[in-house]
Design goal:
Largest sheet: 3 strands, antiparallel
Number of helices: 8
Structural class: mainly alpha
Number of strands: 3
CATH architecture of the largest domain: Up-down Bundle
Shape: globular
Helix content: over 70%
Strand content: 5-15%
CATH topology of the largest domain: Four Helix Bundle (Hemerythrin (Met), subunit A)
Radius of gyration: 18 Å
CATH superfamily of the largest domain: GntR ligand-binding domain-like
Order of helices and strands: EHHEEHHHHHH
Strand order of the largest sheet: 1-3-2
Number of domains: 2
Oligomer: single chain
């Protein structure tokens, strides 16, 4: 979810077992679990690769995002101020990273922002689903180019946070619904250009 590994990247058992200081058996088990979660793929005679996300995956991921993120906001009756404080911190990090042209950091902050939005539901199960969903989605964002993808959405995260802080929850849910539709359209257009 931090955007450190690009789609299609080969993951060397030797390199990662040394880097992570774990046995190859432990690493293979981790690779197996990440493959099960849809983040890695095992190719015979090629090894383990970071999964490449296609247009159908993007549509499916955004369908789930609409169901998950928007409905979390629609179900809120009172936003938890502790979570809103965390959202404010994340938005500030993204804004500083954007001013410094650190787009990978902006992307990571964006993922954390959306994960924290789901966290407003106070549900460990939804949190797990959101984490996996956003990790897969981060793989798709590499296609658009991080600066292009996140530039328009840094300000929208701030606007969404402002609506939540003001208690305008239905308005925030509507804004998020449009935000996600715009994000999906932007990403699919980038897929068609490549």
């Amino acid at each position: 979810m931090n955007g450190e590994l690009l789609p299609g990247a080969h993951l060397s058992e030797d390199k990662f077992s040394r880097c992570l200081r774990v046995s190859r058996n432990t690493l293979r088990e981790a690779f197996r679990l990440l493959s099960h979660e849809g983040l890695l793929v095992h190719r015979p005679h090629r090894g383990v690769l970071v999964r490449t996300v296609d247009e159908a995956d993007v549509r499916d991921l955004f369908r789930l995002r609409q169901l998950l993120e928007v409905q979390v906001l629609r179900a809120l009756s009172e936003a938890d101020t502790r979570h809103l404080s965390a959202l404010g911190t994340i938005v500030g990090q993204a804004e500083r990273a954007a001013r410094g042209n650190r787009w990978t950091d902006v992307g990571t902050a964006n993922m954390r922002f959306h994960q924290q939005l789901v966290g407003l539901a106070d549900s460990p199960r939804l949190d797990r689903i959101a984490y996996q969903l956003l990790a897969e989605l981060r793989l798709a964002f590499h296609v658009a180019g991080e600066q292009e993808m996140y530039l328009a959405f840094v300000g929208r995260n701030r606007e969404l946070l402002d609506r939540l802080r003001a208690g305008r929850l239905p308005e925030a849910a509507d804004a998020l619904e449009q935000y996600l539709a715009d994000s999906q359209a932007f990403l699919l257009a980038a897929y068609r250009k490549r």
